[in-house]
Design brief:
104 residues; mainly alpha; 66% helix
Amino acid sequence: MKLSDLVSEDHLTNICNPFRSIAFKELAEFRERLDRALERYALEHSKLKVWNEAQWRAREAAVSLGRQKWFQASTHLYKLSEHLNDPEDWAQFAGGFDPSFNQK
């Protein structure tokens, strides 16, 4: 079983469990509205300009999440997390500014 299968299954479980208390006629309607909201989330995040790898990975994690590409989202988040143990490393990684980065 792939990680993306586990995350997708968990995601579906999370949206289905509280379903009975939500005012939707059918689960399909709820999932359709959720899918549209996630796609809008991805679209708006995809418009953000980025100036370094940390910003790019954060943006791509959000876009992947909105597009329900769980493995891609977790990969970007993992790559970000690799820099969190050392504050100096994080400051250098996340604080960089390259005006041409957004064009890459």
